[in-house]
Structures are given as structure tokens and as C-alpha cells.
Amino acid sequence: MEYTMLNNGIKMPLLGFGVYMMTDPKECETSVLQALETGYRLLDTSSAYFNEEAVGRAIKESGIPREELFVTTKLWIQDAGYENAKAGFETSLQKLGLDYLDLYLIHQPCGDCYGSWRAMTELYQEGRIRAIGVCNFGSDRLVDFIMNNKLPPAVNQVEFHPYYQQKAAEKIMREYDVQMEAWSPLGHGGKGILENKTLISIGKKYGKTPAQVILRWDVERGIVTIPKSVRKKRIEENFDIFDFRLTKEEITAIDLLDRNDAIADLTDVELIKKLNQLKVR
């Protein structure tokens, strides 16, 4: 495994396992357990994924010492605000069956984010969270947030894949020492990314799939990446990226694939309405 160092000195794996849309409890539990058996140690969930309990059961069943794991969950809009965030944290912790979190993120830049951050900062200072951060914050929101809080986010988890590279946003994150983390690093398997000729060609050279090439590209650029799969073979393939390195020319070739083609337009008013209406309990 390769790691990055967060701005508070905490070491975070560069490759993790995401569980977005794993709503079937048994499937989620089985997939997380397979991921842990494969070697993943970073797990990423959210109260809005409705599977924290399944993730917690898999962690317990794995028998892996807690200190070897890096567990992330997220605070949903419904729980925004100081008091709500405190309660939301306790609920997530209970569902996961854990005593502390490694990373807690504000899931969307909606609602009372500042009240949420005060609560999360207190929990961090109490040692109940090892690092706190945000998710889906555009550069304008991120910079404003940093300038108006004493404790800056350690992570900003955003959509990132070869067709949507967010280069300007990445530059801002590096400027402010905020770790970029990629959700949907394989573009949900859509948009033809995995059929891209450049990625296929690079993969053939190393005996790797286009997905493995993408994940290796993320890691070599220092971007935390959290692919998701419910298939054991794919879970294992996605982890098998530490026995090769891309050349500078190959990294540049992938960099040039950017189309600014996002899966989700988080500036869309109707989407924001739907997100605010989603209840996690």
C-alpha cells in the first residue's frame, strides 16, 4: 500500500474501497469483507448510503485490528448544524460499531456547514475523529470555508476521473494543503472510459486493465481513490496496482483525456432540491 500524509500529520492510504449504492445489506457486508481480505484498509461510506451497519459488521467479522483500518463516513444534509452534527456522528459511530472515526466528512456543501464544522472540530479535538474534511466543495466554497474556520479541512472528496479531472480545483487544493480524494474514479464504469484506446494500450504494456491503469494514475498523482465493486474478481483487480509504475509520458497521455465531462452537476438547482429532501433516517 502507498500512503499520503494529511495536513494534520495523519497517514491515509491512497487506495480505498467505496460502498456507494450498496443498499443490499448482505451484498455490502460480503463485498467489504472481500475487500478487507484482499488487503484494502481504507473504507468509505456515508449515512446517506444506508449501509453503515453492514460495513460495521464486515469490520467486526474481519478480525482486523482497528488501528490497521482507516474508516471514513459522512455527515448528510439532514444532520447539518451544531447539535444535529453531534447527534449524526453518534448515530454513525453506533451503526459502524466503532469507538472513533479516522475521517468524517461534510457530505454536501448544503445547510449549516459552519455549525457542523464547529461540532466536528470539537469531536476532532476530543480525539473521537482523527481527521475531518468536506465532500463536493467547489473551489469557491472550499477557499471561503478555509478562510473562515481555524481548522482547515484535511480532505475534499470530489468527482474525479480521466474525463473529469478538475485541474483548477486540484491546484487550489494543493495550494491550501487539502488532500484531493476521488469518488467515481472509474466514471461509474460509464462514459466509455474503460473502452478508451489510450488506457487499453497502456494496460496491454503492463498486463493490466484500463481500470487498473486509471487507479495507478490516481495513486501516482497523489490522489486518494476509492473504487467500488461487488464482484470479487474486480475487487481484487482494483487492488492489484502496486507492481507497476507509469512513465511520465503515459501520465501525460492520460492527463490529456480530460473532457470536463462530469457525472453529476452539483450546481443544478433541481439536484440540490433532491439532495436536501433525502432523509437518512
UniProtKB/TrEMBL annotation:
List site positions: Lowers pKa of active site Tyr: K74
Matching CDD domains: AKR_AKR5F1
What is this protein called in UniProt? Aldo/keto reductase
Q: Which residues form the active site?
A: Y49 (proton donor)
Q: In Gene Ontology terms, what is one molecular function of this protein?
A: oxidoreductase activity, acting on the CH-OH group of donors, NAD or NADP as acceptor
> Which annotated residues bind substrate?
H107
At the top level, the lineage of the source is Bacteria
The cross-references to PANTHER family, in alphabetical order and at most eight, read: 2,5-DIKETO-D-GLUCONIC ACID REDUCTASE, NADP-DEPENDENT OXIDOREDUCTASE DOMAIN-CONTAINING PROTEIN
Is Nucleotide-binding included in the keywords of this UniProt record? Answer: no
